[in-house]
């Protein structure tokens, strides 16, 4: 008990401590990419992992000697006994809102929230103001991250200038500046010709296209899932087909172009089926879903709680079952958050007028552990979908625990109980339908390049 | 016997007993409306605010008159639509109104669920006077009162609701109310205007109007909003009228003693032909009278502190 | 929770009958006949009594007198809570202006019901006079109102109550004194 408290303190003082050496001792170390799952130690020196395995006292003395002679602090030891030690989590779908919507979230607060949620890498979507469709915006984000960030940030560039769906942005320049993928997330590229050209262009750059799939003619005016609940509530529905029509189109375009296509936030049974069939046919597609799509249904909208307003919308039990199956059989590769913070006042309006979005960074891991509890995924499979898989899709040398790799490590207490209290979030966003949820399992320490 | 909540947000949330209580109370209020002096002191000193974000003449006047007949002070506020976009939020608006010690806020709003949003932050009783395509509870109550007066009850009656079911709050409230009171409800309209899963509310769906009208006791016509045509829900008014206008020939399909209702305002010649709306089966004007009694009943039953 | 329990019978069937007869005679005597007289019973007990008195008048005078029904609910001064007495119809299907209205109620207690009844009555017209007839006056008046015709005065305590049970409601006629017991 006492030990845990100390660990929490270490975590909270992360900004002032700098250690050149850190030993994570006796935890259950899981690294899906190397099929590692054993109780062992990890030694971290100068921000890199230098050893994975039982650390002998003699080795320790040697390390201590080095740190003392270099005038730095002693070797820090984290007792991870009974804890799960995994690569730092990666969220490939986050809205950090900066630049332009700093009242909703900033790179500082968003990455603090990410860090608290066990993430060491987040990818931010380009729907900022100005849109991240030019080198200067990408550079601003990266510069701000270096100055104020608590995690690494990899920007995702806009497919089209201003997200208008009309002209391609300078994709090559954006990649050079640091963008790792392209997406018009939040909007759907409705012009099939433009989408095809973006895919072709992306091939030469070696980066994936992340598609927000929504036929905006079918979804027009919609604020929730189209179904019995929308009928009862008198709210305009968004049909499954709005998502599936564009997924179908993008899968066909991916087939003819050969692009690496990643489908964002899969929410329907039909989408899972389409992606599964495409994968079976050998199309280079990957897919993600978010915790709310395997945990919540459109019933959450009853009472007109705008915190349950999200796009794509919360669907039905049947969709949840299909998504769980898709996660289990590998159709869905990634669990991302689609962290979409909004100011409280923006959500405290008529359901029709409230913006879409749910915050997810600080609840994602605890929520996703439900999949392990239910036996849908093993802990290793879950971690893979939050580390190695997104890293592989984006071509990042992250999400792994290898000697020589960045010491990004997350330590999870699988037994810690937590009640979701949005007022305690580090994110500026409080908009979550999970408020008050009682969950089990929490990231307790997030180490970024050796720093706790 | 009393209502369980401080608000009337929807018929869905009312129990059968509560609906009956309102209807019986409204029947008593009808006597007040027939007096020479049509005013009682029951709500003296109470303040009713009609907050109508959507234009409405009938419902607003009905609530206003109901309040005035019970000696309440009634204030009408009709914020322009533009103020919704650029002005203060709905919650701020109603909190300001309540700061002037309002007792009732009657809300008409184009967004479904708006009354639910404000009821959570207000001590005043909130009465839903129509929220988007969701509910219009007092309309259903006055329709039920009218049916009860004409038919002696609702149990076992066949009621056909015809028109744009998808976007009709009147249809939803009536479906909830009538099915709770034992009526058998059918709905009919173009498939583009029949919402997903409506059968689960206990109604039968007919795409052909003639099938829906067969041997019914009550025909309830809905107002067709002409702007729905632009959204492609039906090709032309002409074609809509051809398929779904209540004509004297179609009335003959119903039972001989059928009554014909319409929540108003009527698009004459579109959803209902003039011979029918002004004909002997029509109870459209009785509906208006009953609206006043029902709204007085609701105000009366909601007034006062919860013990 | 205390429950009222029957303590004593104030009037039995014969006494109720005898008392109503006496009141009828008093009314006729005081008003010198039935010219312009109308009866208005206050819901619920007052209505039955008004009808009985009217019947006795008919037997004596061989003439019909109109009987109205007054529901005073909407004029009450204690509607401050959600729990509402059930509202029923007032039925006075004749003009009352320039008539002698005999208001009839079963028990006179705080007089607040009578205040409400008078206010309500005035909204129906301008009677030439209003007189009040009650079967029981149990005291504790809170307003300066008194009855013109009283069947029986019964001093009571606040803990006690008076229950008028009539045939019309399925009882044997009698008036009983109830007392709350802990």
SSE run of chain B: HEHEHHEHEHEHEEHEHHEHH
Write out the strand line-up for the largest beta sheet of chain B, numbering strands in chain order. Answer: 7-6-5-8-9
Task: From the alpha carbons, calculate the radius of gyration of chain C and give it in angstroms.
Answer: 16 Å
Global mean pLDDT of chain B = 94
**Poorly predicted runs of 5 or more residues of chain C:** none
Query: Count of DSSP helices of chain B?
Result: 12
What percentage of residues of chain C falls in helices of 4 or more residues?
25-40%
Low-confidence stretches of chain B: none
Protein described:
The complex is a heterotrimer of chains A (452), B (307) and C (182). Chain A has 452 residues and is α/β, with parallel strands linked by helices. Chain A has a domain at 88-401: Alpha-Beta Barrel (TIM Barrel), CATH 3.20.20. Chain A has 16 helices and 17 strands. Helices cover 39% and strands 15% of the residues of chain B. In chain B, helix 2 (58-69) links the parallel strand 1 and strand 2. In chain B, helix 6 crosses helix 7 (169-180) and helix 6 crosses helix 12. Chain B is globular, with a radius of gyration of 19 Å. The mean pLDDT of chain B is 94. In chain C, 25% of the residues lie in helices and 31% in strands. At the B-C interface, helix 1 and helix 12 of B face loops of C.
Could you provide a short overview of the structure?
The complex is a heterotrimer of chains A (about 450), B (about 300) and C (about 180). Chain B has about 300 residues and is of the alpha/beta class.
How is this fold's topology laid out?
The complex is a heterotrimer of chains A (452), B (307) and C (182).
Chain A: H1 2-12, E1 21-31, E2 36-45, E3 48-52, H2 57-69, E4 76-79, E5 84-87, E6 89-94, H3 107-116, E7 119-124, H4 135-148, E8 152-157, H5 171-177, E9 181-182, H6 192-205, E10 209-211, H7 216-219, E11 224-225, H8 228-233, E12 237-238, H9 240-257, E13 261-263, H10 269-280, E14 285-289, H11 291-295, H12 317-329, E15 334-335, H13 344-347, H14 364-373, H15 379-386, H16 388-394, E16 409-419, E17 438-447
Helix pairs in contact in A: 4-5, 6-9, 9-10, 10-12
Chain B: H1 16-33, E1 47-52, H2 58-69, E2 73-77, H3 81-86, H4 90-99, E3 104-109, H5 114-119, E4 125-131, H6 137-151, E5 158-162, H7 169-180, E6 184-188, E7 203-206, H8 209-213, E8 218-221, H9 237-244, H10 248-251, E9 259-261, H11 274-277, H12 284-302
Parallel strand pairs in B: 1-2, 1-3, 3-4, 5-6, 5-8, 6-7, 8-9
Helix pairs in contact in B: 1-6, 1-12, 2-12, 6-7, 6-12
Chain C: E1 3-11, H1 13-30, E2 37-42, H2 45-61, E3 67-70, E4 100-108, H3 112-122, E5 129-137, E6 149-153, E7 160-165, E8 174-181
Parallel strand pairs in C: 2-3, 2-4, 4-5, 5-6
Antiparallel strand pairs in C: 1-8, 7-8
């Amino acid at each position: 008990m006492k030990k845990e408290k100390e660990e929490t303190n270490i975590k909270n003082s992360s900004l002032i401590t700098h250690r050149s050496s850190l030993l994570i001792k006796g935890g259950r170390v899981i690294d899906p990419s190397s099929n590692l799952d054993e109780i062992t130690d990890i030694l971290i020196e100068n921000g890199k992992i230098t050893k994975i395995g039982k650390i002998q006292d003699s080795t320790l003395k040697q390390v201590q000697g080095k740190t003392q002679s270099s005038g730095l602090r002693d070797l820090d030891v984290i007792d991870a006994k009974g804890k799960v030690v995994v690569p730092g989590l990666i969220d490939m779908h986050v809205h950090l809102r900066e630049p332009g919507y700093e009242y909703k979230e900033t790179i500082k607060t968003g990455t603090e929230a990410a860090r608290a949620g066990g993430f060491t890498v987040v990818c931010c979507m380009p729907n900022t103001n100005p849109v991240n469709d030019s080198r200067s915006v990408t550079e601003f984000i990266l510069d701000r991250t270096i100055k104020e960030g608590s995690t690494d940030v990899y920007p995702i560039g806009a497919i089209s200038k201003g997200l208008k769906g009309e002209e391609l942005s300078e994709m090559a320049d954006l990649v050079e500046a640091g963008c790792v993928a392209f997406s018009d997330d939040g909007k759907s590229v409705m012009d099939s010709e433009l989408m095809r050209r973006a895919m072709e262009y992306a091939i030469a750059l070696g980066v994936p296209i992340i598609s927000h799939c929504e036929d905006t003619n079918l979804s027009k005016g919609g604020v929730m899932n189209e179904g019995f609940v929308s009928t009862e509530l008198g709210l305009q529905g968004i049909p499954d087909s709005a998502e599936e029509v564009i997924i179908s189109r993008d899968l066909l375009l991916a087939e003819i172009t050969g692009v690496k296509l990643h489908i964002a936030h899969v929410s329907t049974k039909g989408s899972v089926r389409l992606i599964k069939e495409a994968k079976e046919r050998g199309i280079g597609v990957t897919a993600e879903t978010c915790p709310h799509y395997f945990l919540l249904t459109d019933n959450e909208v009853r009472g007109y709680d705008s915190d349950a307003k999200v796009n794509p919308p919360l669907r039905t039990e049947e969709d949840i079952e299909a998504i769980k199956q898709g996660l289990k059989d590998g159709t869905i590769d990634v669990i991302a958050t689609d962290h979409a913070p909004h100011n409280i006042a923006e959500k405290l309006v008529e359901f029709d007028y409230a913006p879409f979005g749910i915050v997810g960074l600080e609840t994602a891991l605890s929520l996703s552990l439900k999949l392990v509890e239910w036996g849908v995924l093993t802990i290793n499979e879950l971690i893979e979908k939050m580390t190695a898989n997104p890293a592989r899709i984006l071509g990042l040398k992250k999400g792994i625990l290898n000697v020589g790799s960045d010491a990004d490590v997350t330590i999870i207490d699988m037994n810690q109980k937590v009640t979701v209290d949005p007022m305690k979030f580090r994110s500026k966003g409080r908009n979550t339908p999970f408020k008050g949820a009682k969950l089990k399992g929490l990231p307790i320490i997030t180490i970024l390049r050796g720093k706790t | 016997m009393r209502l369980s909540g401080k608000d009337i947000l929807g018929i869905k949330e009312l129990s059968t007993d509560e609906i009956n209580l309102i209807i019986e109370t409204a029947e008593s209020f009808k006597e007040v409306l027939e007096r020479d002096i049509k005013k009682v002191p029951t709500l003296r000193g109470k303040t009713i605010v009609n907050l109508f974000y959507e234009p409405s003449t009938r419902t607003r006047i009905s609530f206003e008159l109901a309040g005035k007949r019970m000696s309440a002070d009634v204030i009408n506020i009709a914020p322009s639509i533009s103020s919704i976009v650029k002005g203060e939020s709905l919650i701020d608006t109603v909190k300001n109104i309540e700061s002037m010690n309002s007792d009732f806020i009657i809300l008409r709003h184009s967004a479904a669920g708006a009354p639910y949003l404000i009821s959570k932050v207000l001590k005043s009783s909130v009465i839903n006077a129509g929220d988007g395509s969701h509910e219009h509870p007092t309309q259903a109550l006055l329709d039920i009162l009218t049916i009860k007066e004409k038919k002696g009850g609702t149990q076992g009656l066949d009621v056909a609701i015809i028109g744009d079911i998808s976007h009709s709050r009147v249809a939803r409230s009536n479906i909830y109310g009538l099915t709770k009171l034992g009526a058998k409800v059918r709905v009919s309209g173009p498939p583009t205007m029949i919402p997903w899963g409506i059968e689960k509310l206990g109604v039968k769906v007919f795409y052909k109007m003639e099938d829906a009208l067969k041997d019914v006791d009550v025909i309830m016509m809905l107002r067709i909003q002409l702007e729905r045509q632009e959204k492609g829900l039906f090709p032309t008014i002409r074609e809509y009228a051809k398929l779904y206008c209540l004509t004297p020939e179609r009335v003959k399909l119903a039972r001989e003693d059928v009554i014909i209702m319409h929540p108003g305002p009527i698009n004459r010649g579109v959803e209902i032909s003039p011979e029918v709306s002004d004909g002997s089966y029509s109870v459209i004007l009785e509906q208006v009278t009953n609206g006043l009694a029902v709204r007085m009943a609701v105000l009366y039953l909601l007034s006062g502190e919860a013990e | 929770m205390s429950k009222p329990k029957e303590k004593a019978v104030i009037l039995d069937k014969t006494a109720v009958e005898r008392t109503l007869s006496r009141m009828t005679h008093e009314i006729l005597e005081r008003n010198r006949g039935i010219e312009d007289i109308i009866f208005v019973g206050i819901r619920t007990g007052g209505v039955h009594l008004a009808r009985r008195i009217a019947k006795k008048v008919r037997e004596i005078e061989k003439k019909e007198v109109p009987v109205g029904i007054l529901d005073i609910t909407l004029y009450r001064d204690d509607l401050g809570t959600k729990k509402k007495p059930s509202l029923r119809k007032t039925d006075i299907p004749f003009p009352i202006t320039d008539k002698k209205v005999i208001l009839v109620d079963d028990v006179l207690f705080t007089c607040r019901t009578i205040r409400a009844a008078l206010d309500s009555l005035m909204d129906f017209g301008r009677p030439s006079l209003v007189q009040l007839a009650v079967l029981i006056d149990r005291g504790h008046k809170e307003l300066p109102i008194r009855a013109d015709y009283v069947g029986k005065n019964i001093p009571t305590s606040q803990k006690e109550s008076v229950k008028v049970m009539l045939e019309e409601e399925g009882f044997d006629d009698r008036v009983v004194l109830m007392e709350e017991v802990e």
